[in-house]
Amino acid sequence: MAPLPNSRTEPDGSAVIRVLSYNIRSMRDDTAALARVIRACEPDLVLVQEAPRFFRWRKKLARLARAADLVILTGGATAAGPAILCSLRATIERTQDVLLPLTPGLHRRGFATAVVRFAGARLGVLSCHLSLQKDERYEQGGMLLDRLAGMGVEHAIAGGDLNERPDGRTFSRLTDGLTDCWAAAPWGGEHTWTPADPYQRIDAIFATKGIEVLGCGVPAGHPGVTGTDLRAATDHLPVLAALKVPAS
Description:
Blueprint: E1 8-9, E2 15-23, H1 31-41, E3 45-49, H2 57-67, E4 71-75, E5 83-86, E6 91-99, E7 110-118, E8 121-129, H3 134-149, E9 156-161, H4 169-177, E10 179-180, H5 181-184, E11 203-207, E12 212-217, H6 227-233, E13 239-245
Parallel strand pairs: 2-3, 8-9
Antiparallel strand pairs: 1-2, 2-13, 3-5, 4-5, 6-7, 7-8, 9-11, 10-11, 12-13
């Protein structure tokens, strides 16, 4: 497997960044393995799903961020599970946690969102965990697109656990307006669930037009990422992307 490009700043002010999307199952598994996987990927941004939401949830998420050499950007219980972690390379412009309409009998969902800068590149960021129910999930896909469009930025990314494969109508709704990073530049593994026997892709990273995808996929075989840690860390495999964001 060819190495994924490292993070860097180009002479024209554009930025190459690494983005990781990861469902961490409320840190109920091997958190040391989880931190090792994240740290080995050397991400600038981590789009988290199922962050801790209950007793001392901030301390738990902060402990993970610290172990992975990152800081908390936004989200967690305040976004019903999605969160964003970042490296110190990111300059934070603003954050907003969004709770989505609650369907009686179903789990509350939300978005963790932020606008950040890397050198001369300005970027909107959204982490999501969409519904298990197909009609609600489809509506949430539309809300995701509306949220990105309303962030006031030229370039944006979204990622998360979609609870749907690429042939689903919500996935297709997203790819009508966004680039599916795996499809644009496949790298590493494809399937994200389950770690013991991965057979389907239900986690993804998307980018707006103008962002160049340099590689995207499950970082199995990436230096420092072991199969043992991937299986122990949580019940999903992560998605890692290298993206080139133009200067704003």
